[in-house]
Design a protein that fits this description.
Length: about 290
């Protein structure tokens, strides 16, 4: 809609995770580096937690992509939607590891087949890494089943490592009595923070540049201050407010995003602040 108006090649503030837009902010880069190091350190489990929209899924995909560049060293599996029972979880892991198995295979046989595959990779000096996104939603029995797989040892090493990405509720889940063994095997815990003012400014500028913008600062200082106040420094909310702010400016034929544009975006994003949607007034039928 507004690409040509702002001289962009693509939308800079899309909500779809795209590793092209992974900004090496100190906190996110530290999380990335810590995860890579954790692959060779004690502890079967690593925990990355953060509020909704802080960039967990993007970080997950970034680490997955990095490990996929070394197929002789790592085999990876990914569970994006963890609301699966223990049997369905094992079937998904088997599929991710490209194992040939029958859907009718009983749970114990499937568990043995996956264990054999993990050990076979270990003998080839290749480590299996399982990534679970939105892990706070995983059933307790499924987590226990995954923990059982991590108990496999080969030459005093952990052939299977598990990285759990989740909202803060994940810590409460692991505090349950039935999951105390999982918690004991956590080697790395990292909490993704919200962005501060400096981080927010770098984030906005980076995404605009990646989308093809080559002009001067599009967002004024006061606009950035409002973005920080109303987004809480959460990247997903920053994306929503930036996109809507640019729609406002586009609707008025303006190319500089100032505080009034952001405040219109805030009014639309938080309905309690406005009885009507300004988007429906500027772009009828497109709000």
């Amino acid at each position: 809609m507004y690409l040509q108006h702002f001289g962009l090649a693509q939308y800079p503030f899309s909500l779809t995770p795209n590793t092209r837009y992974f900004l090496k902010l100190p906190s996110h880069q530290m999380a990335f580096d810590s995860l890579i190091r954790a692959m060779g350190e004690p502890g079967a489990f690593s925990l990355i937690t953060g509020e909704v929209g802080t960039g967990k899924t993007l970080l997950c995909r970034k680490v997955l992509n990095a490990l996929s560049l070394h197929p002789r060293r790592f085999s990876t599996a990914f569970i994006p939607h963890p609301i699966l029972n223990e049997e369905a979880t094992m079937q998904h892991i088997a599929e991710e590891l490209h194992l040939d198995f029958s859907k009718s295979k009983d749970y114990r046989s499937l568990l043995k087949q996956i264990t054999a595959a993990i050990l076979a990779d270990a003998k080839e000096k290749r480590q299996v890494i399982l990534f679970v996104d939105e892990a706070q939603a995983m059933p307790e029995e499924s987590l226990r089943a995954i923990h059982l797989l991590t108990q496999v040892r080969y030459e005093d090493r952990w052939p299977l490592k598990v990285v759990l990405f989740g909202q803060p509720e994940l810590h409460s889940l692991l505090d349950r009595p039935g999951l105390h063994q999982v918690k004991e095997d956590v080697g790395l815990t990292f909490i993704l923070p919200e962005l501060d003012r400096e981080g927010l400014e770098a984030y906005v500028e980076f995404r605009l540049a990646k989308a093809g913008y080559s002009g001067r600062h599009m967002f004024t200082s006061s606009a950035l201050s409002s973005l920080l106040e109303y987004s809480g420094g959460v990247p997903r909310m920053i994306n929503i407010l930036c996109h809507k702010s640019m729609l406002v400016a586009f609707g008025k034929g303006e190319r500089l995003i100032d505080e009034p544009h952001v405040m219109r975006a805030v009014e639309d994003t938080f309905p309690e602040k406005s009885p009507g949607s300004w988007l429906s007034r500027i772009f009828p039928g497109k709000s």
